[in-house]
Amino acid sequence: MICSGERLEAWVRGELPAAAAAALSQHVRSCEACRRESEWLRTERRAFAARRAVQDPWGSRAAPLRRSVEARLEAERSRIVPLRRRARAARVVRAVSPGVLAVLLALGVVSKPGDREAASLFRGSSCVSIEVAGFCPLPPALEQKVALEEDHFGACLMATPRAPPGSSSLCF
Amino acid sequence: LEVLGRSPAAEESLAARIRSGDHRAFRTLFDRHGLAIWRFLHDLMGDPTSADEGVQETFVRAFSTIDRLRDDGRLLGWLLGIARNVAKEQLRVRRRDRPPGASEIPPESPEAIGVHVPEDALGPERWLLGREAESLLSRALAELAEDRRAALLLRVDHGLGYDEIARVMGWSVAKVKNEIHRARTRLRELLQSFHGGDP
Predict the structure, then answer these.
(1) Residue A146: pLDDT above 50?
(2) How far apart are CA B76 and CA B54, in angstroms?
(3) Would an 8 Å CB–CB cutoff place A56 in contact with chain B?
(4) In 3D, which of A138, A136, A137, A132 has the Cα closest to residue A160?
(5) Residue A135: φ, ψ to 5°
(6) How far apart are CA B57 and CA B82, in angstroms?
(7) Distances from the Cα of A86 to the Cαs of A80, A89, A142, in angstroms?
(8) Do B134 and A55 touch (CB under 8 A)?
(9) pLDDT at site A54
(10) How far apart are the first and last CA of chain B?
(11) Can you spell out the DSSP letters for chain B?
(12) Residue B51 burial by CB count (10 A; 0-12/13-18/19+): exposed, middle or buried?
């Protein structure tokens, strides 16, 4: 039999099947190294068990520690619940905001970015042509220019009627 | 009853109850495994106050991460794994805050820690079972490298299998066996040196 520390440990711990344990027991009787090793493993096992018995301070500690843990968990729960509520509210806002925006656009309370961009393209043109261009997609490079045209554009919006339905076909 | 209470089936049922938000189940978990976790942390960190803090942190983390537990039947191994991470973090902070040159655990002789080694003792096996065993063993354990000590404790003191220790430590099973073997060898050398004999 090959001497194995792992098998000896399993034997000492009573984890070997009966047949294997019997064979190893016979081997240990004739092998000095395995006998010494198994003695040490038994001693180690007993020593750790004795240490556990001496070292047990749990009686006085358990209750206060458990109360501390429960208090911390309670604090965690109260912190987590408002966060969950906030997340739920954010989800509701995200869900309804496209509809609200559509209503505001329809009512003319807010304007599309395209409307503003049209102003820089049609400086000096009639307000009607600006209104038509407002329904057309424009290159993003015009974004910065558009910001400078707010006043002109604002004046046009006030002065002209909305473009007729289907005016997007006028896009260039 | 105690043995039945810690069977894998009982542990699985307990984990399921905790997951469903049963506060009493969490209390049961604490009562069942709190002492083992405290002792493990005490052995890793060396003082009761740190162990107290570590126990709290371990159970708070356990509660927050119970959904990530993969094997409900191995609650103790899972808790010991969390405890080991908590200890590592606390020890890292302690090392960072320690003045340069100061040692983590002051070197002490058996006499300095109140241990009387009998003159006629033949070896560690004999006097390790005496009344000073606890101090001697604790002192020898404290001298072991941190990870090696953790692996040995998980095996000898907490009864985990090699595969479970491998999961807790994030090592291969081969490495676990090797480290535990080295830890045992070193433990014997230390106990011999405390005794005054050759290692």
Answers:
(1) no
(2) 15
(3) yes
(4) A132
(5) -95, -5
(6) 9
(7) 10, 5, 38
(8) yes
(9) 73
(10) 43
(11) -HHHHTSHHHHHHHHHHHHTT-HHHHHHHHHHHHHHHHHHHHHHHSSHHHHHHHHHHHHHHHHHHGGG-S-GGGHHHHHHHHHHHHHHHHHHHHHHHSPTT--SS----TTTTTPPPPTT--SHHHHTTSTTHHHHHHHHHHHS-HHHHHHHIIIIIT---HHHHHHHHT--HHHHHHHHHHHHHHHHHHHHHHHTS--
(12) buried
Of the candidates B38, B128, B181, the beta carbon closest to that of A47 is on B128
Query: Would an 8 Å CB–CB cutoff place A77 in contact with chain B?
Result: no
- Sign, CA torsion B120/B122/B128/B129: negative
Q: With contacts defined as CB-CB under 8 Å, which chain A residues touch B184?
A: 44
Residue contact B30–A69, C-beta within 8 A: yes
Q: Does A61 contact B38 at a Cβ distance shorter than 8 Å? A: yes
Q: Do B125 and A55 touch (CB under 8 A)?
A: no
Option in A50, A66, A72 nearest B133 (CB): A50
CA distances to A76, A86, A97, A104 from A83, rounded to whole Å, are: 11, 5, 21, 30
**What does the pLDDT look like over B7-59, one tens digit per residue?**
788 888 888 898 888 888 989 999 999 999 999 999 999 888 999 999 999 99
Q: Residue A48 is encoded by which pair of tokens?
A: 């750790």
Contact A65 B52 (CB under 8 A): yes
pTM: 0.65
Which of B3, B27, B33, B39 to substitute to test the interface with A, most A CBs within 10 Å? B39
